[in-house]
Amino acid sequence: MLGDNRVFPVRGQIIRVEAPWQFHSYLIDSDKSCYIIPNINCVILGGTKQLNFNLEVDDIDKQNILR
């Protein structure tokens, strides 16, 4: 597309949950992109790190993140 083969898509998927007791960020596995990031109104659970163009929410990825 852009003529630069060093550029490629990386798909990510997150889940926002309510967890007001969570104040610390965690990076659990940098290769698989598992993390917890607290925000003001929610906590972000992630994620995925897939080399593809898929823009859809994947239920299997969702279950893996929650697990």
UniProtKB/TrEMBL annotation:
<keyword id="KW-0274">FAD</keyword>
<dbReference type="GO" id="GO:0005782">
    <property type="term" value="C:peroxisomal matrix"/>
</dbReference>
<dbReference type="GO" id="GO:0071949">
    <property type="term" value="F:FAD binding"/>
</dbReference>
<keyword id="KW-0285">Flavoprotein</keyword>
<dbReference type="GO" id="GO:0019478">
    <property type="term" value="P:D-amino acid catabolic process"/>
</dbReference>
<keyword id="KW-0560">Oxidoreductase</keyword>
<dbReference type="InterPro" id="IPR023209">
    <property type="entry name" value="DAO"/>
</dbReference>
<dbReference type="GO" id="GO:0003884">
    <property type="term" value="F:D-amino-acid oxidase activity"/>
</dbReference>
<protein>
    <submittedName>
        <fullName>Uncharacterized protein</fullName>
    </submittedName>
</protein>
